[in-house]
Amino acid sequence: MKEVVVLGAGYAGLKTVVLLQKKIKDNVHIILVDRNDYHFEATDLHEVAAGTQTPSRISYPISDVVKPNITTFIQDEVVGVDTANKTVKLAKHAELLHYDYCVVGLGFVSESFGISGVDENAFPMTDVDEAKTIYNHIIAKMQDYQQSKNPDDLHIIICGGGFTGIELAGALVDARPSYAKIAGVDPSEIKITLIEASTRLLPMFSEKLADYGVNLVKKLGVQLFDGSRISRIEPGKVYYKHGDDTEEQTQSAGTIIWTTGVSGNPLMAEAGFKERRGRVMVTDHLNDPDHDDVYILGDVAAVMPPDGKRPYPTTAQIALAMADFTAEDIASRIKTGKRKAKAFTYKSLGTVASVGNTRGFGEAMGHEIKGYTASAMKKIIADRSLMETGGVKELLSKGRFDLYH
Length: 405
Ligand SMILES: Cc1cc2nc3c(=O)[nH]c(=O)nc-3n(C[C@H](O)[C@H](O)[C@H](O)COP(=O)(O)OP(=O)(O)OC[C@H]3O[C@@H](n4cnc5c(N)ncnc54)[C@H](O)[C@@H]3O)c2cc1C
Known about the structure:
By secondary structure, this protein is α/β, with parallel strands linked by helices. The chain is built from nine helices and 26 strands. The N and C termini lie far apart (46 Å). It binds flavin-adenine dinucleotide.
């Protein structure tokens, strides 16, 4: 009997388990560990933060997809991986977990780049609880405004105008009328500001398409300060320097959200993997270079494309592709003693950014798409991933065939 221990029930970890359960019926026991008892679609967190989606629409119970005759799910915090002794340590579970194969898919954390005051004064948005906290805070600020009449209560600053920041701005635009109703003001009084260090936003898109996206957000009333490096954050205040200016400027707001970037889980460093910013440069079979029984997937992995210039961007799409490969490789090793002959290869199907519920822009299968088409494509991509891991049951229960919601 081979023991496969999968750490993290995100895109990479959960899909590996679902596929392994289909591929091997005997001689395997899988242990899946996650701190939550539900899987969530991180790609929709901005909508929960804005309040345009409920948490239940972007998550489902892990027990819905785990087959108890093959897989044991443990809800706990992973605190260590000992690759020499092939064990995993959990926070509450008294016994160490022993593995023949370990799949690490522990995902991303918010990166503050050492900027003073970020952790204390800005909200990160990396999981469902953090997204809910942001939404509850925005609503509380709108309620405060009824008494305070302080315009800062109506002001939301997004620090970081990358893909996530732009998507969040779009969702906040959609939610503006509902915030305004609570505060008792006109929607135009709800101010949304993006502060971004770069002057060339969204480098994953062509300059023309990126300009389209940025202009769309601006047209919707989002104020953009690009070329503005954030120097520190104090309670209710973001300080930044524009271009080569040495003098700091400041913006004040009741809500400050941090979306400047993410790094891989810090546990990778703590567990002794050779990592950079929480990411391990994996082999062509997605293994840790020093341990071929350890697979490292998703946002904790760095995968070099054939041109070898810089690793692929970390996305849900590549995390799912890595899960496909890993499940096949492990199944082959268990069944035949031999691994999948071919190395992992990846071809992106494209990238689409949403700007609220019915607008978007991006590139899919070599074509640039904009507007409602892009928005619908984004939903189709998300539904496909939900279907592949959660199955028809989850897709139907979320009512996600409706591309307008
Ligand atoms: C707002 C937003 C929009 C995005 N949009 C897109 C998009 O349009 N397209 C795209 O492809 N990608 C997008 N991404 C990126 C994508 O979400 C990530 O690349 C993807 O989630 C990585 O998948 P993963 O399986 O590596 O990790 P995750 O999905 O982050 O899963 C990690 C899992 O590990 C668990 N975990 C972490 N630490 C521990 C621990 N110590 N103990 C136990 N459990 C733990 C977590 O609970 C979680 O379930 C977006 C991200 C954000 C935040």
